[in-house]
Amino acid sequence: MLPKRHKAGSHWRILVHERIGKSYGKQIEDSHENYKEHTEFDELVIDEWLHLEQMDTNHWWMRLGPLMVHVTVGERGEARTIQVGEDFSPDEGWILDETQDAYIWKKT
């Protein structure tokens, strides 16, 4: 028997906190469990630095600062392929610092 096909975006959860001065107040949590069975997560945008969007059934696109990420999701909800590229021009003020153990993009 084949395993049940997982639909990309069908399981999701968000959590936000109310800020009161320098501390946090109540938290607000939501998930796919509070909606109809066929509800899917589609898009998340936070300020200008993060944009995640479902482009097709199993294709997700994300802009994370100066990076552009494409993810293909498999039948069980796992990432099958991940492609990372740069989505900026040098005049936007981003430089790549390769002196660390990881790639670090810095705003100049």
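The above is record 1. Record 2 follows with the same two-line structure.
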Amino acid sequence: MESGWFVVIGAMVGAIVGAVPTVVIGWLKNRAEKETQLRQMALELALADRKNHCEINSRKRGQVAYFPPTAFIASAYVSVREFMSGKLRPEDIEDKYARIAETVSANGSAIRDHINPK
């Protein structure tokens, strides 16, 4: 009778040992896919923001600064990541973009001052 328990316990341990790598690999793969999707969403958001930025600047007269796409990627990635994690509520988005606009405006002023020193 004792050998029967060893067989049952051995089978259970074997099942657990066999299942752990499957669960861990699945979790890692899911995590990598989620990160890839977040980056893709951030890139799409950054490119859309830059397109809007270029359209607005094309309507302005005089010399205007066109920011490279990389200038929009970091803020878009942080915004998407915080929103998806639940740290960023929809009410906070307007405030966040107001701060981003202030930063972009300050950077634009710095670029204009660099291009056209007084």
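Helices lie at 2-58, 70-85, 90-115.
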